[in-house]
């Protein structure tokens, strides 16, 4: 009998074996063109001029409304709902009863009893499950991300979503608006004009300068996009394609794809039975040199991902008791790894070695080849002291970088090595070619790596020092 849900799949296989040999291919940022000019210039635009990010297709949008909407969110989030006012946003982080992270995303409070979650599927699925099974008086509506490979079929969403970022972003914004736009506090929502339309805004920012995220009905997608691009021409605004978009997280320090910690524990069996065989969780691909038969070795605590400061014990929530028993000082923490230039040159040169297999291909600018990536970080003795979880190349920094979680005694400036490539010539994943492993020297660096971001981001937001 064909499996109908995740639990039925896991009943016949080890979850690590399932995900290490997934056939779904590498994670895709769908629909948006790979490049509009060239990805290097598009990356440099958010540091030098301005950039238009198109976020319309790669995230789920989950609307939750009703008398119990805040109650549902509060009970599933490590964050406090105190002082969460209408027209504000915050990062939403749910954990399992054992205290491990399920996922994260951005939560918009659009009305007193109406919230919109925007982000990857794991946190959206958890909210949907709790809403359906927890006896909450809420209505939910899910607008799933666009298909990774639409195969020529038309794609539509409920909303388009853009970001205007970079040093010249506010000049573009005010020209589009036809007048001044107030620079509200970080993660505060408002409105602005785009041509004859009024759209919703969220105060954001990167590259040391204020910017906005804007959204509206998908029917106006082309008109809004063209209006912004035309207004931004004189300020050097560039449209960012999917290749450039995928590496902005390397500079800003957000680990976007931790493995949802839901594959073990009897308490979560009902959830795994609820998740379909076609769900993200049932088709997630684990990639990298770190291999363990115990799926829990791939789970992350909030502290490891930089979310420790989000935990507030002013409310009851799933996982609270488990988190209270953990010592934050003993948890892994987030860091950026700067990869050695000479080792990177050696890695790429292996593609031209006709005598033996190449090293695992390091794609530019996004080198990840799974949904959740785990490369072993080792010290001089060969001991695993952390996991490299998101890897690529920054055209702004001209460095190969990765976002990682490291043991608490690892210090900034310390020299370590990343084991690059999978053992035994590679797993059975569709995204893995035959290759050999190698070790790449890395230096532990601050997070975020870009100094402009460390200075400009809100305290506690993606910043290791405040985690």
Structure report:
22% of the residues lie in helices and 25% in strands. The protein is of the alpha+beta class. The strands form 4 sheets. Strands 8-9-10-7-1-11 form a 6-stranded mixed sheet. A 6-stranded antiparallel barrel has the order 13-17-16-15-18-19. Helix 6 (169-177) packs across helix 7. It is globular.
Q: Give the beta-strand count.
A: 19
Structural class: alpha+beta
State the low-pLDDT regions, or none: 458-467
Strand composition percent: 25-35%
Counted by DSSP, the helix tally is 14
Helix content: 10-25%
Report strand order across the widest sheet. Answer: 8-9-10-7-1-11
Radius of gyration (Å): 22 Å
Secondary-structure map:
Blueprint: H1 6-10, H2 15-20, H3 39-48, E1 50-54, E2 60-65, H4 69-76, E3 88-92, E4 105-111, E5 114-119, H5 121-133, E6 139-143, E7 159-165, H6 169-177, E8 189-194, E9 197-206, E10 209-217, H7 221-232, E11 237-240, H8 242-245, H9 248-252, H10 269-274, H11 280-283, E12 286-287, H12 320-325, E13 333-339, H13 341-349, E14 372-373, E15 375-378, E16 384-394, E17 399-406, E18 415-420, E19 438-445, H14 451-456
Parallel strand pairs: 1-11, 12-14
Antiparallel strand pairs: 1-7, 2-5, 2-6, 3-4, 4-5, 7-10, 8-9, 9-10, 13-17, 13-19, 15-16, 15-18, 16-17, 18-19
Features:
single chain, 467 residues, alpha+beta, six-stranded mixed β-sheet, six-stranded antiparallel barrel, 14 helices, 25% strand, disordered C terminus
């Amino acid at each position: 009998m064909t499996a109908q849900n995740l639990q039925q799949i896991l009943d016949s296989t080890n979850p690590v074996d399932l995900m290490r040999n997934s056939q779904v291919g590498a994670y895709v940022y769908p629909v948006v063109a790979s490049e509009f000019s060239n990805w290097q210039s598009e990356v440099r635009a958010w540091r030098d001029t301005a950039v238009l990010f198109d976020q319309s297709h790669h995230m789920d949008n989950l609307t939750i409304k009703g008398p119990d909407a805040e109650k549902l969110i509060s009970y599933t989030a490590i964050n406090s709902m105190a002082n969460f006012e209408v027209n504000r946003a915050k990062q939403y982080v749910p954990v399992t009863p054992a205290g491990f992270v399920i996922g994260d995303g951005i939560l918009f409070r659009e009305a007193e009893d109406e919230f919109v979650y925007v982000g990857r599927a794991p946190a959206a699925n958890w909210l949907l499950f709790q809403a359906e099974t927890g006896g909450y008086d809420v209505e939910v509506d899910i607008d799933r991300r666009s298909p990774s490979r639409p195969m020529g079929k038309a794609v539509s969403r409920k909303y388009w979503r853009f970001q205007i970022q970079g040093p010249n972003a506010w000049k573009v914004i005010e020209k589009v608006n036809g007048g001044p736009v107030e620079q509200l506090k970080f993660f505060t929502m408002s409105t602005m004009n785009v041509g004859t339309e009024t759209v919703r805004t969220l105060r954001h920012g990167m590259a040391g300068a204020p910017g906005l995220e804007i959204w509206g009905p998908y029917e106006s997608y082309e008109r809004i996009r063209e209006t912004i691009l035309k207004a931004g021409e004189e300020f050097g605004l560039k449209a960012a394609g999917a290749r450039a978009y995928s590496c902005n997280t390397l500079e800003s320090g957000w680990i976007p794809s931790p493995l949802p910690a839901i594959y073990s524990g009897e308490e979560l069996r009902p959830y795994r039975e609820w998740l379909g065989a076609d769900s993200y969780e049932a088709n997630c691909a684990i990639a990298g040199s770190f291999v363990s038969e115990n799926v829990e070795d791939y789970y992350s605590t909030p502290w490891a991902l930089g979310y420790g400061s989000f935990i507030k014990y002013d409310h009851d929530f799933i996982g609270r008791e488990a988190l209270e028993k953990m010592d934050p000082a003993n948890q892994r923490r987030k860091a950026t790894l700067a990869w050695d230039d000479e080792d990177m040159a050696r890695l790429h040169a292996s593609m031209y070695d006709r005598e033996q297999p190449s090293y695992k291909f390091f794609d530019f600018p996004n080198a990840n080849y799974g949904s959740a990536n785990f490369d072993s970080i080792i010290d001089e003795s060969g001991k695993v002291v952390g996991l490299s979880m998101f890897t690529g190349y920054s055209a702004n920094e001209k460095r190969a970088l990765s976002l990682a979680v490291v043991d608490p005694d690892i210090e900034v400036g310390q020299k370590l090595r990343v084991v690059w490539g999978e053992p035994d010539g590679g797993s059975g994943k569709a995204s893995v070619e035959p290759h050999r492993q190698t070790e790449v020297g890395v230096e532990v660096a601050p997070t975020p790596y870009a100094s402009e971001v460390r200075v400009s981001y809100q305290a506690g937001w993606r910043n290791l020092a405040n985690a």
